[in-house]
């Protein structure tokens, strides 16, 4: 399967529809409806437009939200989720920033 593109308004609308579908399936008590639509460009960038990566990202963030009791997904919660190595390679600046932040925390 090829990644979703995100350049034209039609491509962006298709991605937003996918993001909205995933968000509507969430059953987190404190999650604000529509929060993912505001994050749609970030989610596309983070997942390189791949449905499987998006699903993994949302699922992991939702599990973290349940376990920590917040019951909502935030950008910070999404940032905390590690994706596969190939995604990090595609998003090298993001991976470098995350590793730099992690290194600062351990010092």
What's the short story on this structure?
With 107 residues, this protein is mainly alpha-helical. It has helices at 9-25, 35-38, 40-47, 51-67, 75-79, 85-90, 92-106. The protein is 67% helix and 0% strand.
Topology of helices and strands:
Layout: H1 9-25, H2 35-38, H3 40-47, H4 51-67, H5 75-79, H6 85-90, H7 92-106
Helix pairs in contact: 1-3, 1-4, 3-4
Structural summary, described in words:
The chain is mainly alpha-helical. It is 67% helix and 0% strand. It is built from 7 helices and no strands. The mean pLDDT is 85.
**Helical residue percent?**
55-70%
Number of strands: 0
| Averaged pLDDT | 85
Terminal-residue CA separation:
41 Å
Count of helical stretches: 7
Q: Which percent range describes the beta-strand content?
A: under 5%
What would the principal axes of the Cα set say about the shape?
globular
Low-confidence residue ranges: none
Order of helices and strands: HHHHHHH
Count of the domains: 1
Keywords:
globular; 67% helix; mainly alpha
């Amino acid at each position: 399967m090829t990644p979703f593109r995100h350049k034209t308004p039609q491509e962006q609308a298709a991605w937003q529809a996918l993001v909205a579908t995933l968000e509507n399936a969430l059953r987190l008590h404190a999650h604000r409806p529509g929060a993912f639509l505001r994050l749609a460009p970030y989610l596309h960038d983070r997942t390189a437009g791949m449905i499987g990566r998006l699903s993994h990202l949302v699922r992991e963030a939702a599990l973290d939200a349940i376990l920590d009791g917040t019951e909502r997904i935030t950008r910070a919660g999404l940032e905390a989720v590690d994706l596969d190595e190939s995604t990090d390679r595609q998003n090298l600046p993001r991976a470098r920033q995350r590793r730099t932040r992690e290194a600062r925390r351990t010092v």
